[in-house]
Amino acid sequence: MRRPFTLYKENTKSGTFWYARFWDEASQRYKHSRSTGILVEGKKERRYEAEETARKIFEELAVTQTPQDLPNNPKNKTVANTFLIEYLTNFWTANSEYAQFKRDVKKKPLTPGYIDMNHEDVRRHVEPYSGFDGVTVGSLSKAILKKWLIWLSGRKIIRHKKDGTVIEGDTITGRRANIVIQAVRVAIRWAVDNEEILVDPFRKLGEVSETEKEKGVLTFEERKQLTELQIADYRTRLVMLLGSYCGLRRGEMRGLQWGDIADGIITVQHNFLNKEGLKLPKCNSVRKVPVTSAVQELLDTARKNAFNTSPESYALESPQISGKPLCNNFFRDGVVKELEALGITATQQRERFLTCHSLRHTFITLAQLSGISDVEIRALAGHKSEKVMKKYSHVPQVIDFNAARKKLEGNGETGIKAVNG
């Protein structure tokens, strides 16, 4: 069923305002436009206020229409004749039939974060495409999807600054585009599996070509410098060492409790996510990792400065919100500052693709070069398969070519002597 209205932005002399275009059943298109009077401003752009206002305008307009003309008339409603945008919007909700099936039948519930991500992708990258206007689930075709893929591949990344400024960035990456496509594909194939529609328009459609960018890692020397640099904030330095020396994920650092640390060992058994709270680590990868002397020293400092050191309290507790760990932004911003202290500028960080998760990649890469077996590394990192672990290994980035040259030259001399002898 078609959405009763769509929102769009209109620049006026008084500023940029939200406008609504309302569906006209007779002409089968969005026809009537009205200003909501809501300015586009702030981080959320006041979109929810605009939607509420547009809904009230729609209710006023609906008074002059007969029941059969209303876009929300339930007569003969099926999945096949439901408008695509409405179907996708309702599909990616916590109480959808698909979510219930995954939770109650498959016993593999979708995480709130995953549902919200897909719901937001539909709003940002599917709903704005005019080619989907009037398209129902049953009328969706491969030709329509191909045109959408062309449009999606040319989308610009939009960033919103705290002051409300909108910045248009680079074209959306192939990887990001394919994540959006997957949100639509899963929903449509659910309808196919339920025999709500007979033909899968995604069959043999393929994906947007993508060039995977290799995650950057720190060298042995750079990681060592982290233990020697003057400490500006012991918490950000602790993040750097927990990631690069212990292989902890960001969520595992946030979920780390004082009761998880004992006798030089960290038991990684907690993971903190904003919308889910405390849970098990990713893929249930509960494990134990050894604590180096540098990490232990920072943990001791953190304990001395902690408001609460009970076993259930967080080692990286937020100073603003008691009983909660540090926010995600602290980790992102902290890593940037620590890398800059190492002499790696923000530009170089982007070029090397160094992020908070790079610390875990660093741990695995340098552990391999240190002579630790792959079996041991998998156990320490909590990886279930060797294939996954290999994606985290970036040995070519940290090869010491001078050391390698000396080894090669040394072996060559030994070989010559052996032959002459």
Uncertain stretches of 5 or more adjacent residues: 65-72, 412-421
Q: Which secondary-structure class do the elements indicate?
A: alpha+beta
- Largest sheet, described in full? 3 strands, antiparallel
Principal-axis shape:
elongated
Question: What's the SSE pattern?
Answer: EEEHHHHHEEHHHHEEEEEHHHHHHH
Spatial sequence of strands, sheet with the most strands: 1-2-3
Average of the residue pLDDT scores: 87
Distance from N terminus to C terminus (CA atoms, Å) equals 88 Å
- Cα-atom radius of gyration: 27 Å
Beta fraction: 5-15%
Number of helices: 16
Number of strands: 10
> How helical, in percent, are the residues?
40-55%
Structure characterization notes:
With 421 residues, the protein is an alpha+beta fold. The protein has helices spanning 47-62, 84-91, 97-105, 112-125, 142-153, 174-193, 220-226, 234-244, 250-255, 293-305, 328-341, 346-352, 358-369, 374-381, 386-391, 401-420; strands spanning 5-12, 15-24, 29-39, 156-160, 166-171, 261-262, 265-268, 271-273, 277-279, 287-290. The strands form four sheets. The chain has a three-stranded antiparallel β-sheet, with helices on one face. β2 (15-24) and β3 form a beta hairpin. The model is unreliable at 65-72 and 412-421 (pLDDT under 50).
